[in-house]
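Field: COMPLEX_INPUT
Field: COMPONENT_COUNT = two
Field: RESIDUE_TOTAL = 230
Field: MODE = joint
Values follow.
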Amino acid sequence: QVQLVQSGAEVKKPGASVKVSCKASGYTFSTYAIHWVRQAPGQRLEWMGLINAANGNTRHSQKFQGRVTITRDTSATTVYMEMSSLKSEDTAVFYCARETRGSYRYFDYWGQGALVTVSS
Amino acid sequence: QTVVTQEPSFSVSPGGTVTLTCGLTSGSVSTTYYSSWYQQTPGQAPRTLIYNTNARSSGVPDRFSGSILGNKAALTITGAQADDESVYYCMLYMGGDLWVFGGGTKLTVL
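Field: COMPLEX_OUTPUT
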């Protein structure tokens, strides 16, 4: 069965970077895009960006452009999201999600989420 | 910048019907936005309910339905149950490999 398993909770200091992983299994990794979604405590979902697992091409929301790097390791069937220059406002749960194939443009499977806490 | 709008909150009686909407601050939502809907309960990852405007995701009860109503995407819950009490998010595909979520609607069943 399809699974997206994310790395565990992290605590970081302001100005640091964090790298969250999303391990995919149960399907052919390179045939689906993986997206990242941020959710600050009590706040809405925010689409951050995506990676085409086949060719590594990425696209980011303008809000996160330049501060977020999405990469993938095809041999490990894992996607990574790295955010730099962390601020306290970046405290959030980060979800990875698989975009379904075809032209329907939606997410059919989600990771369990990874809490990143930014605190001095 | 165009923002995706949703009602902040809504209330429905058990067994009742409620329609949540998803609009744009500029323009109309049509099928070309491939609207999708997600249900989220506290501490949980979102669950996919509806995609491509009106298609139900696998395992979703048929009391959840999607549509376009006027210039907005809509999610209708018919025969609301207590465990439908959640936050519902719409998501729109804006073209050019860009997606945007709405602000979410907190649904209370009472």
